[in-house]
Amino acid sequence: MASDDTRLLMLIDDEPAQSRFVSALASREGWRTLVVGSGEEAIQKLAADESGEIRAVLLDQWVPGEDACELIRQIRQLRPDVPLLMLTASTSPLLAVEAMRSGATDYLIKPVGPDRLLAALRSATRDEAPRDELQPMTEKFAAALDFDAMVGSAPPFRTALAKAATAARGHGHALVEGESGTGKEMLMRAMHGSSTRAKNAMKLVNCGSMPSMSLESLVFGHEKGAFAGAFDRQTGLLESCDGGTLLFDDIDRMDLVLQDRLADVLESGIVRPTGASHGFKIDVRIFAASDFDIDELVAAGDFSKKLFDILSATRVRLPALRERMGDIPALTRYFLSQIGEQPGLQHHSIADSALTLLEAYDWPGNVRQLQAVLFRAAVFCDGEALTASSFPQLSQLLGDSPDRGESRHRGLGVLLYTEDGNLRALEDIEADVIRLAIGHYRGRMTEVARRLGIGRSTLYRKLSELGIDNAA
Known about the structure:
- By secondary structure, this protein is an alpha/beta fold.
- It has four domains: about 5-125, Rossmann fold (3-Layer(aba) Sandwich); about 155-315, Rossmann fold, CATH 3.40.50.300; about 325-400, Helicase, Ruva Protein, domain 3; about 425-465, Orthogonal Bundle (Arc Repressor Mutant, subunit A), CATH 1.10.10.60.
- It is built from 20 helices and 16 strands.
- The strands form five sheets. A five-stranded parallel β-sheet has the order 2-1-3-4-5, sandwiched between helices. Strands 7-10-13-6-14 form a five-stranded parallel β-sheet, with helices on one face. The protein has a two-stranded antiparallel ribbon with strand order 8-9.
- The longest helix is centred in the last third of the chain and has 15 residues, at about 365-380.
- The protein starts with 7 loop residues before the first strand and ends in a 6-residue tail after the last helix.
- It is found in: Cytoplasm.
């Protein structure tokens, strides 16, 4: 096996410009790139790669076209362990499902930003195990536009939503902070959808996905001839979103000079494109997101204090999933209902054995990672329900019998589903609830009856009918 110093990326692509872009990008991470222009050539190269120098494959779906999934299967037969990422211009979930079932490790929709591509490549080739099942997929479902789609009842999460909803009805800018995958983009879209500007333009800018000069032109615009390569005038998003909302993801990745320039625009209400002799009056609302606490970046001199002061009038912090573990059952069933609506997939229930695994993991990729793991499991599940066996890497990581104690403290100790995903009989569930209540209230039967909303005589009759010992 090749060492990390000699790792080789095979790029199956017949577009010279994209090949140069990917090769240059991969070189930043220490990859050499082997470009092949057809599926046949790729198979020949892989078959001849006896030393295993090729460590990953990036396939542009355009090259084999409708035969992309067949090519993926052929590559998998030759190299079952090599990570395989597919680039495609299609947004069809059906193609994603077919590609994954054929053996694709990840699925990226073009145009793909540099950071997104590198993150997918980095995640797919990470050495630690388990790998594929738990890595967040690069693509996800389209973000919903209302607060009703933000599932969860944990107090810190509901507090964040309430604060965001209040801010949405106002007129000021807002800053949304939280770890990657907690739903910041979704929340910003929901805020726009609930604001008085909901019917006006909304654009999203990912500040980490493009070079500083490109970001400057995209946001502020430029005049023809403003710099080398500026062959035409470009209207910036600040101008085109006049009256609407501009969302900045990874605002901390914006160059400090551009941060100060953005602060000046928001303070004055006037944007002047690069190279222009005059500016334009605008009215734009900004929602910005960061994976970090921005005040810490300001203190370290890594973020514009002026921009922070403007954006931080409203700050919303989305908690990590490990801070709201009690929301996992509700999130799981919500995501499964969404996944079941996708072409090529079916509706799945989930057995308690599977929920136990999901609740025992700490989810470093947060809600986005949970969604991706459920999507992968649903793709490969032929039965009606996802069970513990649907998450083999998670089972391997956590062991055969993860502790369910925390779940029981949250009131989830009563099993609702059998191992095949069907509901248990009502009398069995009722018996478990009564046992749980007797244990929780330490055998104080009057309190048990009161909390269950039944009389003492009814409780004792049920104990007799269900064969429950009072000391259960």
